[in-house]
Amino acid sequence: MTQRRVLFWIAVLYFAEGLPFGIAYDVWPVFFRVHGVSLTEIGLMSLLSLPWTWKLLWAPLVDRWGCRQHWITASLAVLGAVTLAIVPQDASNPSYLMWGLLLLFTTASATQDIAVDAYAVDVATPETVGSINGTRVSAARAAMLAGGGGFLILADVTGWTTLWVALAVLLFGLAAVAWTSP
Predict the structure, then answer these.
(1) How far apart, in whole angstroms, are the C-alpha atoms of residue 83 and residue 172?
(2) Percent of the chain having pLDDT more than 70?
(3) How many whole angstroms separate alpha carbon 63 and alpha carbon 68?
(4) CB 137 within 8 A of CB 8
(5) CB 25 within 8 A of CB 48
(6) Neighbour tally for 45: CB within 10 Å
(7) Rounded to an integer, what distance in angstroms lies between the CA atom of residue 26 and that of residue 155?
(8) Could you give the 3-state DSSP secondary structure of residue 159?
(9) pLDDT of residue 124
(10) Is residue 145 within a helix (H) or strand (E), and if so which, with residue range?
(11) Which among 108, 126, 118, 121 has a CA at the least distance from the CA of 171?
């Protein structure tokens, strides 16, 4: 693969990796606060980040079984499905189902992180490691900004239901693109 093609795929996959993180850290707190959820309960949502902390526990499974492309695609598809499943939930009174959906979202995101990071390690060479690192950090940061502030602006303009549907469409689109990755 040429260096330009490698950097393209790194950018796409790290954008897909950074997007859910921006949603979880920037959009969810605003979404629930707008719907009247207490700051205490919103603070407890920080526990939903545990899959990102503990992903090292299932990283060997992701590394051993299946190819990176399948893990990334499946994770993005789960993220899209969970995002659609948020739509009918009562945001003003988060149920155990809602908490479970949010935990599934962060777990799928953490699993995708494992596979994307492994992909970057697989394609890196001593000559490309610097440009790969720069590209991955830039793409992930851009995704966090788009997923955070960008989607909050969209929610303000179109409403929350449209936001979740647009995000799901984007995640399913990224899943389709990831499926075509080398």
Answers:
(1) 10
(2) 100
(3) 8
(4) no
(5) no
(6) 19
(7) 12
(8) coil
(9) 85
(10) helix 129-145
(11) 108
